[in-house]
Batch of 2 targets.
Target 1
Amino acid sequence: MKHLDSEDIAGLALGENFDDAPDAQAHLSACFRCRAELVNLQELVVTGQESNPAHLLVPPPSLLKNIEAELAEPASIARRSVDQQMWPRRAAMTPGVPHRRVWLVASAAAAVGLLVGAGAVFLAQRDAVEIVAATPLTALPGKTGSGEAQLVRRGGVKEIRVSVQGGVATNSFRELWLMDPGGQRMVSLGILPAIGTGTYPLPPTFNQSLAPYTTVDVSVEANDGNSAHSQDSLVRGSLAGQ
Amino acid sequence: MSRTWRELSDAEVALAYRDGVDGAVAEVFRRWGSPVYTLAYRLLGNPGEAEEVTQQVFVGAWRSRSSFKPEVGSLAGWLLGQTRNRVVDKYRMRSKEERAIKAAQDLAFEAAPQSAENIIDRILLADVIKDLPEPRGTVLRLAFYEGFSYTQIADRLSLPVGTVKSHARRGLLQLRRMLEGQR
């Protein structure tokens, strides 16, 4: 049996139709090997889609100093007995560092593709992005969901970046809000795309501080034309102090 | 060295690191601090422990750098493997109660499982895509990250659709070969 050409299988994995390989469908239903190859490449496509380096988190810059400081310690520490090494020391983090961390994105790792003009030169974006604060988003009682929100400053503009899992159902959508801790006053930042990941620029009125809207809330909204908060919240997190 | 660190390829930096060249720790942290930290954070779920593990990885890796074998895999893959091992140690040190909570959370999020291998593959793949020659790398980035069709990519890059298609297909096969070399 003549197997499918691997480039044709790659094309199918990338979502092409069978135009280039009209007999492929019949062959695939009969051939385990080509089917396995297709599944393998389809998985690679999904991994590729999820591999966006813009989604990498950036460690606090102070971490490198801590690493270098630990490495500069006398060699006797490096030669600790095996027994002692069984119990890793708590990392030499600077005591008293407040919980709110300022994270600087040295953008090499988080480089985002930026295409300029029709000639399309691919450039690694070197704009510094500063992650001002971050919070996990946790499910409200009775809900199943999770996520993460970051308050980011890019070129003088503050943005909220969220990634939310859960709460997807037909006939409803998810909406991102900033609210005061009591949940009395709120601002809608917009609707979450189906994949649950989005970036939401904040209006300049938030440049100094988010207060009092320091709670990040994701609601499930019925498709009913009512723009008010449904009071059906999925996940929440706090950016208190920002 | 006459060239600056930033001009070196990933493979050259890896060799300099293994050989213990001054400044290699900082450069390796600059290139792979984010992937290591991201993996630790995704697996542990909190920034404090992720920082601790990242520090342990970079200190431990430098001290055992002679055991890094460039012919076996990439430095990124080696560092991520160490990160996974440190996270496993950390899991073992957590109290039973905490483990029970974690297990319950894992169950709750079963819909979107994030195994260490899966996260590592994603991180390595980003690294590999970065190394693809142009325009192949851009073609795949637009397809993967922007969800562009071949026609849209062709418009954007002013290339014939056939060329885009061929780059996408061959690029995908090339990625698989490169990823196998990384692991």
Target 2
Amino acid sequence: MSDGAEILGVPRIPGPVRGPLSEETRQKCRTLIARYPEPRSALLPILYLIQAEHGFVSREGIREAAGMLDLTPAEVTAVATFYTMYKREPGGKWLISVCTQPPCALRGALNIKKALEDELGIGCGQTDAGNVCSIEEVECLCVCDGAPVVGINYENYEGLDADAVLEIVRTLKAGGTPPAPKRGAVPQPWVAAHEELSGLHGTRDAHVRSTT
Amino acid sequence: MSETKVLTARFGTGADRIDAFVASGGYQAWPKALTMNPADITEMMKTAGLRGRGGAGFPTGVKWGFINRNDAPTYLVCNADEGEPGTFKDRDLMEQDPHQLIEGMAIAAYAIGCTEMYVYIRGEFAYAARQVEQAVGEAYDRGFLGPNVQGSGYGLDMIVHRGAGAYICGEETALLESLEGRRGQPRLRPPFPAQQGLYQRPTVINNVETLACVPHIINNGSEWFRGIGTEKSPGTKIFSISGDVERPGNYEVPFGTPARELIEELAGGVTGGKKLKAWTPGGSSSTPIFGPDKLDTNMDWESVAAAGSLLGTGAIMVFADDACVIRAMARFTHFYAHESCGKCTPCREGTYWLTGMFDRLESGQGREEDLKIMFDVQANIGGRSFCALGDFATAPVISAVKTFEAEAREHIKKKGCPFER
């Protein structure tokens, strides 16, 4: 598959090569495209679906999204690189997000961040050796009443100290599932979490286009 | 003192599900509104004095009044992209009472002739978005949404759309760009969204808390609403209190309640009986942050402005006397540098250089001239960017350095942070 990068000598989009999207994912994309008055509105949801199947926003996914929406791969890439929740490389099964804004920092967030880095032997923005956990430092998650806040696949754990967070991480490393947070649900595995983020199941599509 | 619970009255009662919501008086305002003249609903919001809770305080009825409801299609978009550090009211409203939001949105949509409304929810709010989606499904099942709402002949659909991690999308034109599948960068105005918004159509964008007020005004009347709060800031406000307080949380009180009562009584005062050093009246965009001398400020738009700062989203972050203000400002600066959308050079570059200066200061390598250069950077961002992010990225932190200049100089003199915490 040549995209001219070799000839032009320009850098490739990082990340390993993935195959084409499954027909199932493509069908889901079409459902999303039909939902909106203008197809391009489905781009952010579609990028979540690509991330669900490929683990990150792959260049193959970008090409397919561009094809479905009659955009160029550059236009799709521009969007994919703008938003923090789209990842450019595969990560772990569990994405652990540590907020370090002042309300969390005042209540021990920096200790949690350091403990996680030490325990997993990686820095923020990286994935551990077994591809189980990725850690990231994030901006305010707006759960400041529960500070310090740690997200696992976007479910929030509130008021935990570093030891309690490490206990969860060790459970994850051992192949277990995380405990239920105070609010929200037990974090879903990567694929289910990202399919939910796409909003695929949250809107009554049968109604939407029939009434307008 | 106690809270005045209007928007938060159903919190913790299980009213996130439709049966409990209806049993507690929910979905009475929406069918009632459907029997009203849409223009009268807009007029009611004007006489109630409802103002936008997203930070700017713009009169809601006036915003709706800009729309020609016969110029179909028109759109209503709820801004649920809450991201201001220290703010967590919209998340709570969606998690605990999603039907209240749907009902408010439905009434607003009807008032502006919209048949397809959107809620743009911050991507990281997995639970809040799930709660809203479930409530939307319930509302369809009971005929509060759908092709023929309550047999009225009015059709209304609702689409739940998630963001993907970009604070700037809380800016309304950036939100529209994002909803259209683009990078979330603000648009040039004019044209304003009321003329050309979503898909170039007339559009109203309202904050979650603002829309949550609407059913209560329909049910109880604009005079009732005016009777709460102050003359120019009517109604209640949810204040998100966080940081060094005994009981962080959302507290709903009438506008104009003194900050002292919120911090010392409702939130239980500063943690461990420590002394208060600083607090923000309106999140990280507060300019400037306040010291203890401003505790008796009444929390409404006019009083906070008169005291020299901004009410913003009503996020009160409290810092005890052993917290380092410079470190906090360094964190804010990192936030804005990360969230600058990159469109305008002054904001994109200025926030980057500011993080360098604050990190130097905090790590003990600060230089006397940095304190001067900071003001220079601020002067070169302020008013020179498309949207307010650039102003908010600099004015608050720089004003904090001015207020706590002695603390900043101590960092330079001691070659490090003087605080152990």
